[in-house]
Amino acid sequence: MVLFRSAVSQSIKEVMQSLVDDGLVQTDKVGSSNYGIPEDRTASLAKRVQHKELQALETELQANGACDPVKVEEKKRAVILAKEAAARWTDNYLILLSHFTRQNGVEADDVRKYLGVGEDYEDIC
User: Fold this and answer.
1) pLDDT tens string 30-79
2) What's the CA gap between 120 and 50, in Å, rounded?
3) Rounded to a whole number, what is the distance in angstroms from the first to the last CA of the chain?
4) Do the domain assignments include residue 123?
5) Which residues form the Leucine zipper with capping helix domain (predicted)?
6) pLDDT computed for residue 77 by the predictor
7) Cys-Cys with 117: which of 50, 65, 83, 112 at CB 3.0–4.6 Å?
8) pLDDT for the residue numbered 37
9) Would 52 be classed as within a structural domain?
């Protein structure tokens, strides 16, 4: 039984070139010899996994965009501005109602009824 056969040099070069072309092996010339070094596939696989994890995290970040500190601060400022505007309009309404009832001798309930302001209206201040 023959355990080792001599290989044809040309067939080894062809196989090596095929592996290099497929990206499975890198070759380096050292002196007068060419050495084949297996491609580190774990690095490329790790890069793919990291890319997929990054995409998943970006998707999660977009889904949880409402919890973004910048957006939360913007909403807080918008709420404060809206509350101030509502208080200002309420004050304006009450001042005008008081002025109109004093100037014209009309009851406040009649003015509210005419303006369509319900009895459930309350001052928010």
Assistant:
1) 666 665 556 666 567 778 889 999 999 888 878 777 677 888 899 999 99
2) 58
3) 102
4) no
5) 70-123
6) 96
7) 112
8) 59
9) no
Tally of structural domains, the chain: 2
Pull the structure tokens for residue 27: 């070759």
Q: For residue 121, what are the contacts with CB-CB under 8 A and spacing of at least 6?
A: 112
CA–CA dist 35, 7 (Å, integer): 17
**Three-state DSSP class for 65?**
helix
In a domain, 108, yes or no: yes
**Chain centre to alpha carbon of residue 111:** 51
- Name which of 22, 60, 59 is nearest 38 in CA terms: 22
Question: Which tops the pLDDT comparison, 115 or 63?
Answer: 115
Cα angle 120-92-109, degrees, rounded to a multiple of 5: 40
What would you report as the CA-atom Rg of the chain, rounded to the nearest whole angstrom?
A: 40
Tokens representing residue 88 in the block: 């200002």
Asked if the structure places residue 57 within a domain, the reply is no
pTM beyond 0.85, yes or no: no
